[in-house]
Amino acid sequence: MNKARIGIVGAGGRMGRMLIEAILKDDSVVLGAAFDVPGSPAIGANAGVLVGMVSDVVISADLVNGMKDIDCLIDFTRPEGTLEHLEICRKAGVGMVIGTTGLDAGGKAAIAEAARDVPVVFAPNMAVGVNLVFKLLDTAARILNEGYDIEIVEAHHRMKVDAPSGTALRMGEVVAAALGRDLADCAVYGREGVTGERDPSTIGFATVRGGDIVGDHTVMFCGLGERVEVTHKASSRLPYAHGSLRAARFIAGRENGLFDMQDVLGFR
Ligand SMILES: NC(=O)C1=CN([C@@H]2O[C@H](COP(=O)(O)OP(=O)(O)OC[C@H]3O[C@@H](n4cnc5c(N)ncnc54)[C@H](OP(=O)(O)O)[C@@H]3O)[C@@H](O)[C@H]2O)C=CC1
Ligand SMILES: O=C(O)C1=N[C@H](C(=O)O)C[C@H](O)C1
């Protein structure tokens, strides 16, 4: 069987470089192409050299022309870039793994629409451990369904541009769904001043940004006399890259459809 040829967009970024390294070390897939935005210092560089390895792929800004070299595009960029790449992939019949966070409702709808034509895995966190935590949170919320205040705290590096993280928001969605609530109606994003007493129906979010923190998430279920905390801490971006490659292998051979990492990992 032919190995899946994977393209990386945002190749010069933190996740882009991690993905290139993971692909070059993985015998089951091939780096077919690598892309970045016009004007990026990564354009024209050898993708292997970028991560201290060997490759014959040169980073290009020409995504349209590069479609012929890949079976799947992995995208960890920015919402506006991801939506442009989505249209190019859709026209070329190429599947996508999308890790970009911060997409609004319109962007998410555009992804769902494109997934009618091509297979797409779209998930705010590709790490197996975080996806296990989503399952644990569903169980915790169903059991601690009364008398426990829910607060979600996330911490990331100083370069992160969106808040709360996509993962924290998904954690909120999982907990809210388990409790029969809609996150849009009960989320409180930060507090300041004379806030009044806590409304028990709310789910609170707090964001920390600093240094090189890769990604920490804690969901607290705070009762009277006890507190349960479910925490995930990432110390490397490798789990995100490995999860992305699992997702790329998952969509190989599929015609279309919208999936997330729960599907890829068989957790549904
Ligand atoms: N789902 C998951 O498991 C994970 C998701 N993420 C998400 O992935 C995204 C990227 O994270 P990270 O790698 O840390 O970010 P970086 O800023 O390090 O990398 C982003 C890359 O995308 C490029 N880029 C920026 N804007 C555009 C655009 N409009 N069109 C195309 N390319 C663009 C950047 O180019 P340039 O530098 O030249 O601007 C850069 O190469 C974020 O949304 C983050 O939250 C991150 C880790 C895990
Ligand atoms: O920007 C990051 O770094 C990360 N972003 C994702 C998110 O917003 O949830 C996933 C991970 O936490 C790292």
UniProtKB/TrEMBL annotation:
Q: Where is the Dihydrodipicolinate reductase N-terminal domain?
A: 5-126
Q: Where does this one sit in the cell?
A: Cytoplasm
Annotated residues for binding of (S)-2,3,4,5-tetrahydrodipicolinate: 157, 166-167
Single GO MF annotation: NAD binding
Annotated residues for binding of NAD(+):
10-15, 36, 99-101, 123-126
Q: Which reaction does it catalyse?
A: (S)-2,3,4,5-tetrahydrodipicolinate + NADP(+) + H2O = (2S,4S)-4-hydroxy-2,3,4,5-tetrahydrodipicolinate + NADPH + H(+); (S)-2,3,4,5-tetrahydrodipicolinate + NAD(+) + H2O = (2S,4S)-4-hydroxy-2,3,4,5-tetrahydrodipicolinate + NADH + H(+)
Active-site residue list: 156, 160
EC main group: oxidoreductase
* One GO CC term on file: cytosol
Q: Where does the record place the Dihydrodipicolinate reductase C-terminal domain?
A: 129-265
Per the UniProt entry, the Enzyme Commission number(s) are: 1.17.1.8
UniProt entry keywords in alphabetical sequence: Amino-acid biosynthesis, Cytoplasm, Diaminopimelate biosynthesis, Lysine biosynthesis, NAD, NADP, Oxidoreductase
A Pfam short name: DapB_C
Q: In which pathway does it act?
A: Amino-acid biosynthesis; L-lysine biosynthesis via DAP pathway; (S)-tetrahydrodipicolinate from L-aspartate: step 4/4
Q: Which InterPro entries match?
A: DapB_C, DapB_N, DapB_N_CS, DHDPR_bac, NAD(P)-bd_dom_sf
Sorted alphabetically, the Gene Ontology BP terms of this entry are: diaminopimelate biosynthetic process; lysine biosynthetic process via diaminopimelate
* Stated role: Catalyzes the conversion of 4-hydroxy-tetrahydrodipicolinate (HTPA) to tetrahydrodipicolinate.
Could you say which protein family the record assigns here? Answer: Belongs to the DapB family.
Q: How does it assemble?
A: Homotetramer.
Q: What is this protein called?
A: 4-hydroxy-tetrahydrodipicolinate reductase
* Highest classification ranks of the organism: Bacteria, Pseudomonadati, Pseudomonadota, Betaproteobacteria, Rhodocyclales
